[in-house]
UniProtKB/TrEMBL annotation:
InterPro entries: AB_hydrolase_fold (IPR029058), Pept_S33_TAP-like_C (IPR013595), Serine_prot/Carboxylest_S33 (IPR051601). This is Peptidase S33 tripeptidyl aminopeptidase-like C-terminal domain-containing protein. Belongs to the peptidase S33 family. SUPFAM superfamilies: alpha/beta-Hydrolases. Residues 432-536 form the Peptidase S33 tripeptidyl aminopeptidase-like C-terminal domain. It comes from Zopfia rhizophila CBS 207.26. The lineage of its organism: Eukaryota, Fungi, Dikarya, Ascomycota, Pezizomycotina.
Length: 565
């Protein structure tokens, strides 16, 4: 059974999708489109009503802006339009992270959350970056073989164990096999996979702003990008600012990745705060009391001791799950199942902490049903129904984009180098280290896809000055994009400013904060920045906020959707 590994960085995957129409339906109902495949790619922005309250377009853009003879590719955009009819109303492009996360899915499924963040005075535009979801080029290693992909997906990604040489070897070999296979599939002269990378997508965003300006009768060469990017979206946003510093209109980067580490291909600077972030589970559980936290005990230390006892017992004795209401076939939940779920818990404490407390309480009684449900083991996907908007596989684009960006700079080509890498990550984080090491840079070791020279980013994204200052956001304790990365980036872009939110979780979206939202909206309105050292409080506290404790079924559904960082 495959336990999807966390890769860095999808920040907004906890937004519940309220969108019910599956994207695989290829149709236009009257003048309303419900599928991007039914839209004809165009070199200009041509909006078509879609998905009931949005408009969509597929832009036909050059694969390589410096060599347009190699062809074009279609990039999917969806827009929610404000009521304003003013020609000066700005479009804010949004990216939820990944790499490999869908901006189309984010906007359609998470519009209300985006309205909380940026308000309703602007048009909000979600787009699928190159190789993702509805946008080309095709990065599939199993194109046209959905059943084959799902069989492979089930077998790929076993969690590794720093103390188990066989488990480490399996992970290392699996990653190598993935790279070998996909490199062969995309090795032909006509393969376009190499054009899916962050530099190319950043240039696509510039291209969009220029086409938008042209459609308004404005000078395209003076157009500027308005953008909100979370997690990996901060890599994309900072890359844009470094490449086009004079084209920055408003740039909000939330949950900042160490972009120098990212472009080196290491992914070694993400998790230094992960254990401290997760340890807040014990504190918040104790402070909430036994009615709110079912795993409550007489002290923080007692809760932590029980947690370790549950974990250690499961490592020694896996639990059978045979409850037909929980699984569709009998399964065994193991320490690997537990690690997979644990890895994701500190991302969104308000949603996941109550659920995790229930999982621990059940495991303590020898019941693994909720753990199985949460991890998705013992469940099968009805292939006949086709992929839904939340079910689009992201395994390939995630690795293709990250590995192409890394450009072979960090290649774990020997088993000993991989073992050392895992040990380093476990030293960084007891809880996330193994999963992080197995899900990131090792998957690049045999993936021989090289971007054209024009799309290779070298160095560290930075700029002495930008046409407008950049607003950076971070929580105090982020498990995968630590505050220190934001503190580093604010020094790399002259005039930028960092706003810190006093909460735990991945990006400021992990806890509601009116203070944070107010500063974002002030920045959007007139470019004003918070004072240096500004810290915003959050209104949500794990276990204690009325709207933070979702039902078990809702929490399970949300957690299962997390395949990115």
């Amino acid at each position: 059974m495959r336990y999807p590994t966390i890769v860095a960085v999808s920040a907004l995957a906890s937004i519940p999708s309220t969108f019910a129409t599956p994207l695989h339906k290829r149709q236009i109902n009257g003048t309303m489109a419900y599928d991007f495949d039914s839209l004809t790619p165009s070199p200009d922005i041509q909006w078509t009503p879609c998905f009931d309250q949005f408009t969509c377009t597929v832009l036909d853009v050059p694969l390589d802006y410096e060599d347009e003879s190699v062809g074009t590719v279609g990039i999917a955009f969806v827009r929610w339009s404000t009521n304003s009819t003013s020609n000066s109303t700005q479009d804010i492009l949004v990216n939820p992270g990944g790499p490999g996360a869908s901006g189309v899915q984010l906007l359609i499924g998470g519009l209300s959350t985006l309205h909380q963040i940026v308000g309703t005075d602007y048009n909000i535009v979600g787009f699928d970056p190159r190789g993702v979801n509805n946008s080309g080029p095709d990065l599939s290693c199993f194109s046209g073989q959905e059943g084959t992909f799902r069989l492979y997906d089930e077998d790929f990604g076993y969690p590794t164990d720093v103390n188990d040489t066989k488990a480490l070897m399996r992970t290392w070999k699996e990653a190598g096999a993935f790279g070998d296979w996909c490199s062969q599939v995309h090795s032909g002269e006509n393969s376009t996979a190499k054009y899916a990378n962050t530099v190319a997508t950043a240039t696509d965003m510039l291209h969009y702003t220029e086409l938008l300006a042209k459609s308004k009768g404005e000078n395209p060469e003076e157009s500027q990008l308005w953008y909100y990017g979370a997690s990996y979206g901060t890599v994309l946003g900072s890359t844009f600012a470094a490449l086009f510093p004079n084209r920055v209109g408003r740039l909000i980067l939330d949950g900042v990745v160490d972009v120098e580490d990212y472009y080196q291909g290491k992914w070694q600077a993400n998790i230094p705060d992960a254990d401290e972030a997760f340890a807040t589970f014990f504190t918040y559980c104790f402070e909430a009391g036994n009615e709110a936290c079912v795993f409550w005990d007489s002290s923080v230390e007692a809760i932590e001791a029980r947690f370790h006892s549950v974990r250690d017992k499961l490592a020694e004795e896996p639990i059978m799950v045979t409850n037909p209401s929980a699984v569709q076939y009998p399964v065994i939940v193991t320490i690997e199942t537990f690690k997979y779920v644990l890895t994701q818990v500190p991302y969104f404490p308000n949603t996941y902490y109550p659920l995790f407390g229930r999982i621990l309480a059940e495991l303590e009684q020898g019941n693994g049903s909720l753990l199985a449900q949460t991890a998705g083991v013992g469940l099968h996907i009805d292939e006949c129904s086709g992929p839904n908007i939340d079910d689009i596989p992201d395994l390939e684009p995630r690795h293709f984009i990250a590995c192409t960006d890394g450009n072979g700079r960090f290649n774990l080509s020997t088993f000993d180098s991989f073992r050392e890498h895992v040990e380093l990550m476990v030293d960084e984080s007891e809880y996330l280290g193994e999963s992080w090491a197995a899900g990131t840079s090792v998957n690049c070791r045999n993936l021989n896809i090289k971007a054209p020279e024009s799309q290779v980013f070298t160095g560290t994204p930075s700029a002495n000055t930008t046409s407008n200052p950049i607003l950076l956001l971070s929580t105090k304790l982020d498990p995968v994009t630590p505050l220190r990365a934001a503190e580093k980036m604010v020094k790399q872009f002259g005039g930028s400013r960092l706003l810190v939110q006093d909460s735990v979780g991945h990006t400021t979206t992990s806890a509601a904060s009116t203070c944070t939202w107010d500063y974002i909206r002030k920045y959007l309105k007139d470019g004003s920045l918070p004072e240096k050292g500004t810290v915003c409080e959050a209104e949500e506290i794990p276990f204690q906020t009325s709207n933070s404790v979702t039902t078990t079924s809702e929490s399970v559904k949300i957690l299962r959707k997390r395949h990115h960082v």
